[in-house]
User: What shape does this take?
Amino acid sequence: MSNAKVLPLLDPDGQGVVPCCPPLAERPMTAEEAETAARMFKALGDPVRLRLFSAVASHEGGEACVCDISDVGVSQPTVSHHLKKLKEAGLLTSERRGTWVYYRVEPSVLAAMGQLLTLPTAA
Assistant: This one.
């Protein structure tokens, strides 16, 4: 019986949390786990996306209106494209309220990202 930990990651379709991957030092990843993790890191590999993700994650109340985070040095259509890529990677969720869209980073995503890169502690 395995005592492997499975880390959560948001379902890209916004249907909830799905398993992601074990911490890197725990065991070798399966092909599917590597695909999931790579998609997440690829989305964060762009400086504009990383800034947007950080703006949402650090925003008061844990969510941000697109109107509050769009000043990242690119046009509004480009901001929308990058936010879409972050959502497709399962890193953000969104909710439309009137004419504005609010983005949120689920705590489970941040926890999964942190645990993925954590070394095991000595017993």
